[in-house]
Amino acid sequence: ETGVTQTPRHLVMGMTNKKSLKCEQHLGHNAMYWYKQSAKKPLELMFVYNFKEQTENNSVPSRFSPECPNSSHLFLHLHTLQPEDSALYLCASSQEPAGMGSSYGYTFGSGTRLTVV
Amino acid sequence: RKEVEQDPGPFNVPEGATVAFNCTYSNSASQSFFWYRQDCRKEPKLLMSVYSSGNEDGRFTAQLNRASQYISLLIRDSKLSDSATYLCVVNLDDKIIFGKGTRLHILP
């Protein structure tokens, strides 16, 4: 399997639930990202991992907790979310870490459409 | 001024026509630039990088104007399948900024 794979594709969770989103890339890339896409808003960068190390946390609430066990896998653990957290969560990877003024683009997964009820 | 700004559209263009849209950015030190395409309810996909000298890929031409701080995307001989949202992306150091996108509808 190639590219960036995200699971699940759709997730409905209650505000008291705990769930995890999974992302896997088979491209040999060195950087992985979590983005949030809400309706009528630009993509918002949440977290950046370069060579498995978290290098950016864009003021994301602690109810979102990322984990990067190795360079191919990225998780986003969710707990006690709010209805306004409902959005499309996209994972992406890039050849070079973002801090190097990369001339490479990003490869996105298909996303997890999350609904918090 | 917003960091990356795009006209949200929609641009309604007849099939076969040429369409162009711009994206302005606020930080003159921005280093790399990209155009992404996003279909409805799908993930963004890289369309093309934008180089200082300009670049062309088939019917698509991207240009960078550093003096005026904008990038442009030109689509010639537009096809129905070109209907999508086109996202401008600007990279500065470790910051990656997406525009809100420009919606393009190609009309039969």
Number of strands of chain B: 11
Count of DSSP helices of chain B?
0
Pick out the low-confidence regions of chain A.
none
Shape verdict of chain A: globular
Instruction: Return the structural class of chain A.
Output: mainly beta
Structural class of chain B: mainly beta
What percent of residues of chain A are in strands?
over 45%
Count of alpha/pi helices of chain A: 0
Residue-averaged pLDDT of chain B: 92
Q: What is the string of SSEs of chain B from the N terminus onward? A: EEEEEEEEEEE
Biggest interface in this structure? Answer: A-B, 25 and 25 residues
The biggest beta sheet of chain B, please?
6 strands, mixed
Give the % helix of chain A. under 10%
Q: Kindly provide the radius of gyration of chain B, computed on alpha-carbon positions and rounded to a whole number of angstroms.
A: 13 Å
Radius of gyration of chain A: 13 Å
Q: What is the CA-CA span between the terminal residues of chain B?
A: 37 Å
**Per DSSP, what share of the residues of chain B sits in E-state strands of 2 or more residues?**
over 45%
Gross morphology of chain B is globular
Contiguous uncertain segments of 5+ residues of chain B: none
Please summarize the sheet with the most strands of chain A.
7 strands, mixed
Q: What is the CA-CA span between the terminal residues of chain A? A: 33 Å
What descriptive keywords fit this protein?
heterodimer; A: 117 residues; mainly beta; 4-stranded antiparallel β-sheet; 0% helix; globular; B: 108 residues; 6-stranded mixed β-sheet; 5-stranded antiparallel β-sheet; 11 strands
Outline the structure in words.
The complex is a heterodimer of chains A (117) and B (108). With 117 residues, chain A is mainly beta. Chain A is 0% helix and 55% strand. Chain A is built from no helices and eleven strands. In chain A, the strands form two sheets. In chain A, strands 2, 4, 5, 6, 9, 10 and 11 form a seven-stranded mixed β-sheet that branches. In chain A, strand 7 and strand 8 form a beta hairpin. Chain A is globular, with a radius of gyration of 13 Å. With 108 residues, chain B is mainly beta. Chain B is globular. Chain B has no helices and eleven strands. Chain B has strands at residues 4-6, 11-14, 19-25, 32-38, 44-50, 55-57, 60-65, 70-75, 84-92, 95-98, 102-107. In chain B, strand 9 (84-92) and strand 10 form a beta hairpin. The mean pLDDT of chain B is 92. Chain B is 0% helix and 57% strand. Chains A and B meet through strand 10 of A and strand 4, strand 5, strand 9 and strand 10 of B.
